[in-house]
From TrEMBL:
SUPFAM superfamilies linked: Oxidoreductase molybdopterin-binding domain
Segments of this protein annotated with the region Disordered: 31-50
Organism: Luteimonas marina
Annotated keywords: Signal
Compositionally biased spans, kind Pro residues: 41-50
Protein name (database record): Molybdopterin-binding protein
Signal sequence, renumbered to the chain: 1-31
Length: 177
């Protein structure tokens, strides 16, 4: 009697093992069939690189802020525009909170002498990294001279002033490869 009860149980276990053995092949076949894949929206097309205008009219149209920053053992008290506001006003980045695919973009700032610094767009976005950076044209009550200006990029919360750019000449927003 025990043998007869064991036989149906053996058949159920054997059938289960055969089904398990066939499962990877069925999953592979399912993954290869494009009609069975979940639809994924195509990411929006994003222009790259996008030059950001630094002309006087563009900067004058934006709200100005006062900012202090330590640069080479001195504290500068400057006036200018937040970099994130300039990027949005120029159309280089969209208004509002940044999401994918904009989080895979970066900002290059170039000086007249070839010095170049980089920021991830995510670190500049107030909703993500909230790193403040400013394009300034006045420090300590005076317009910047030729040795540091006419524009300068300041990053007041960086531990070192290494990403500050004097003689700022160009800002470009780029999609990471």
């Amino acid at each position: 009697m025990r043998r007869r009860a064991a036989l149906p149980r053996f058949r159920r276990v054997a059938a289960g093992l055969v089904a398990l053995a066939l499962l990877p092949a069925a999953a592979h076949e399912h993954a290869q069939d494009p009609s069975l894949r979940a639809s994924q929206p195509e990411p929006p097309e994003i222009a790259s690189p996008v030059p950001v205008p630094l002309d006087e009219a563009t900067l004058a149209a934006l709200p100005r802020e006062s900012v202090s920053a330590r640069v080479h053992e001195a504290t500068l008290r400057c006036e200018g525009v937040p970099l994130i506001a300039l990027l949005r006003a120029s159309g280089a980045i969209p208004e509002g909170r940044l999401g994918s695919p904009h989080l895979a973009r970066y900002v290059l700032a170039d000086a007249r002498d070839g010095y170049r610094v980089l920021f991830s767009l995510a670190e500049l976005d107030p909703g993500t990294g909230n790193r403040a950076a400013y394009v300034v044209d006045r420090c300590d009550g005076k317009a910047l001279g030729d040795d540091t200006g006419p524009l300068r990029l300041l990053v007041p919360d960086d531990v070192r002033a290494a990403r500050g750019v004097r003689q700022l000449e160009a800002i470009t927003v780029v999609v990471a490869p």
